[in-house]
């Protein structure tokens, strides 16, 4: 396991850190450190295009598709420096980190040429059509259906169903949808992975108000929504394999950038405790020390996971990482509110908009739910990671 970086890597760190600092102190200073995911969307779209113009948008991609062929170490370094600079959360995270790598892995040459340039340029924002009202953590229970219609050579997939928790769907240009394309199929069999345009009459997006005042999540209704027959990624009926591969990409180098965001949040908690005198309270100091220890352990664990070459081992380690960081951040949110006291319960403005720590506390309540609840993660750790027998299902 490498816990440090080479001289060349540190030179790369200096390069990207300098560029990010220049942008966040200059032309994009107005969106530095904004805590709400749905704020300043037009400016954040401009930021995506600025990243792309300087080839910082998708540095791990091949150069021919707008990347830099960056090494794993360089991708980790950029993710860390991006968070350290206070740059805003990427509104095209799903396109750059999920859709793009999946298209690179499973797409045809024509599909790559059709979809990747827009993602790399920051002009095509993507969202994810996985969860449904009856298929959240149990993704294999998808009910959205797709049927093939039309004359040969002009066939289209016609999709009907409902997706939920589609983050930033109301600002997105494209969506990838897991749908049941084989009549009578059940579970992971008979699913297909479709790439669909959001700007069409058959797609309706309804934002869901959240308790932190945002509406990042959405319900997405598909009523005879359409995409070309060749907009299917992978073979018909093999969408489960594509969907699971995409989730593996989600557990990649962005985990280290995520931890730098956690670092910023913990530093804000420490600063608040120093400002109001609670840093002298032995119980608060102990909780801060526990949070610091947990964050460092997560960093070492993620570095060990990402430095491995056994993909199965990486996938197994990732099962534990989700429950680890989600629980840690939920606890950090509770610590933040205890440090802030009553001052943290009052929004400073007229609108229901919160500064960093109260917003983090409210949002962190969902960390142990989305992407697989803690309960589901424990099942996955037991069954896939440890090879234990599956729990009984249904009535014997």
TrEMBL record:
Residues 127-213 form the Acyl-CoA oxidase/dehydrogenase middle domain. Keywords: FAD, Flavoprotein, Oxidoreductase. One of its GO terms (molecular function) is oxidoreductase activity, acting on the CH-CH group of donors. Gene3D superfamilies: Acyl-CoA dehydrogenase/oxidase, N-terminal domain, Butyryl-CoA Dehydrogenase, subunit A, domain 2, Butyryl-CoA Dehydrogenase, subunit A, domain 3. Residues 237-385 form the Acyl-CoA dehydrogenase/oxidase C-terminal domain. It holds the Pfam family Acyl-CoA_dh_N. Its cofactor is FAD. InterPro entries: Acyl-CoA_Oxase/DH_mid-dom, Acyl-CoA_Oxase/DH_mid-dom_sf, AcylCo_DH-like_C, AcylCo_DH/oxidase_C, AcylCoA_DH/ox_N, AcylCoA_DH/ox_N_sf, AcylCoA_DH/oxidase_NM_dom_sf, Mycobact_Acyl-CoA_DH. GO terms for cellular component: plasma membrane. Residues 9-122 form the Acyl-CoA dehydrogenase/oxidase N-terminal domain. It comes from the Bacteria. Belongs to the acyl-CoA dehydrogenase family. This is Acyl-CoA dehydrogenase family protein.
